[in-house]
Amino acid sequence: MSSPQILHVAGWNSCGFYARTAGVLSSMSLLFPTRLKVVKHDFTDRSHYRSWLIDSGFREKFAENRAHSHSASPFVWFSKGATTEPSPDDIEKYLGGHDDTLDWCRTIFSPCEDAPDVGVTMVDDGYTNDHPYDYDLVVIGGGSGRMAAAKEAANLGAKVACLDFVKPSPHGTAWGLGGTCVNVGCIPKKLMHYGAQLNEGIHLDTDAFGIIVAENGNKAVTTTLSWETMRENVQNYIRGLNFKYRVRFREKNVQYLNKLAKFTDEHTIEAVDKKGRTSTITAARFLIATGGRPLPLDCEGGELAISSDDIFSLEKNPGKTLCVGASYISLECAGFLHGIGNDVTVAVRSILLRGFDRQCSERIGEYMKESGVKFLTGVVPKKLEKVDGDRIRVTLSDDSEDVYDTVLVAIGRSADTPGLGLDNINIEVDAKNAKIPTVNEQTSCPNVYAVGDVMKGCPELTPVAIQSGIFLSRRLFGGSKEPMDYVNICTTVFTPIEYACVGLSEDDAIEKLGSDNIEVYHSEFLPLEWSLSQGRQSQMAYTKVITDKTTKQNVLGIHFVGPNAGEVMQGFGTAMKQGLTYKTLSETVGIHPTSAEEITTLTITKSSGEDASAGGC
After folding, report:
1. Are strands 254-257 and 401-404 parallel, antiparallel or unpaired?
2. Per-residue DSSP letters for 428-479?
3. Neighbouring C-beta atoms of residue 210, cutoff 10 Å
4. pLDDT at 112 (0 to 100)
5. Strands 499-503 and 491-493
6. Number of CB atoms found within 10 A of residue 192's CB
């Protein structure tokens, strides 16, 4: 029997292209161990990776000229032996990057050119219909993805239980069934964002449209927000959702257990209820879907800061607020708090919205600054201390100080995996964020699976968790082989000026293909609904489409900064899944007059140097 080919894949940990390439290769090596052996080389960040690849001259050691100009992540090559460290002496030949590697996999592992797409083959987890365990599937976690997986598995005839136990935040906040999105994420955030938009619209738009708000014909508009009323209405809506989810579980014959789970072996968990009573539950298969929790503020007095777990259920208005972090959660909270009339400051260590398109992120920052949100850049909190009762004095790393009513920290999240007993089933989590490595949602313990924010390399988006959970249940209990596609997924940031995107950012496109191989079509425009309001004239909406010049101008990414961004982008996401080209996009007749229409009429390119400001009808 011939020896397996040895393939090395190198990249930095947070690079999506590296994660996908490494995941596919790992899957292939599991399925075809006699044909392929994979050696991964992880780098902590982009600078360390480029220092190794470029500055150390490693890429120059290859005979292929293409390797000498390779700067993107991943970098993939064949070797003569399975060295654990990249060795120039062991090089056989250069393969390429993300696309080259996936093309190679399709060629090598397809039985014939015309073979049908057979989907994914899972590693055998030992499941049999006559297994001796309590359940076919036990889902650990009660969020959107795990509920979807549980209900789909039950629909397919599986006996299913779902364990959900909410550990209160450090400030004591707890919630019901539904996970982060429903209780302390997307739902309350979007409702409060809409409330802020209503308030801002009264101030910015009513006068231009002849709407008199104040009494006695006085056009000096003033509004007063009742935080208590908004909070109570939002929480009542959420409680209604919690109840509906419990009802749906009963309708689908999913056993709901309000218990905290810990693995004792691969088929057994110890379950503890809120009174501390312990029971044992066994299952043929387990799905871990415990989601993530906010990272705490690591400084003196950091325990005084609240997080997004707490903000939506505060008893009183947060008042003057410092939002720590430049994440989308921080900016969204800063946006709606300012929109309802609060004094808001954002402390930014480095850049806004890391991982998103730089140009669009900077436009959001400029919009928020002009609207009155204050930004402190290049600083982090050094000390928090209580003063004047419940107020908080914050000392920053530049020794500046100010006093706030509330400090909200949103500097990232880590997977809620500590305490699950994963070491008892030989599952190692990522040292940085406690996430679980998987191949097609399957962990290193074959009968244990993971979906959602707990899974390494998975976009932290509710619809992603839902879809991947459904697809996984269909593969486990319905005979499907269809994998979850994590490419070209739409997302929206609900900042005061909304931002939606699908596909690559301009920065990632340049990193992947080089600036000479992409074209960017863009437009800056004033949405019609803003055109009468003097208070909205200083900031324009913006959209751009990034294309691949080496193909038939395949669309690599679409970005939109403007009102109703999520509603604008959703349909374009479907087009991207179908292989959208610039020609198809430009031949699409837009709906007039809408902001979405701008995306179908883009003709000005960045390379032309022409003014991107749109005019006319």
Report:
1. unpaired
2. PPPTTT-PBP-BTTB-SSTTEEE-GGGBTT----HHHHHHHHHHHHHHHHS-
3. 8
4. 46
5. antiparallel
6. 24
Provide the 3-class DSSP secondary structure of residue 225.
coil
Helix (H) or strand (E) holding 147: helix 144-155
pTM: 0.83
Active-site residue (options: 98, 131, 522, 592): 592
Nearest to 266 by CA among 282, 251, 242: 282
Residue 237 in this model has a pLDDT that exceeds 80: yes
Interior angle at CA 439, CA 434 and CA 440, nearest 5: 115
CA dist list (Å): 574 to 17, 43, 138, 171: 21, 34, 33, 41
Question: How many angstroms separate the CA atoms of 594 and 524, rounded?
Answer: 14
Q: Name residues whose C-beta falls within 8 Å of residue 110's C-beta, 6 or more positions apart in sequence.
A: none
- How many CB atoms within 10 Å of residue 429? 20
pLDDT digits (tens, 9 = 90+) for 99-142: 889 888 877 766 544 444 557 888 999 999 999 999 999 999 98
Task: Compute how many other C-beta atoms are within 10 angstroms of the C-beta atom of residue 112.
Answer: 6
Report d(CA 380, CA 397) in Å as an integer.
5
The sheet with strand 381-387 has its strands ordered as 381-387, 391-396, 401-404
Query: Is 592 assigned a catalytic role?
Result: yes
Please answer whether residues 300 and 419 qualify as being in contact, where contact means their C-beta atoms are separated by less than 8 angstroms: no
CB atoms within 10 A of CB 371: 17
Angle between helix axes 328-339 and 186-204 (nearest 10 degrees) is 40
Distance CA 375, CA 393 (A): 17
Count of CB atoms within 10 A of residue 341's CB?
16
Quote the strand ranges of 494-593, DSSP E.
499-503, 518-525, 541-548, 554-561
Average pLDDT, the chain: 93
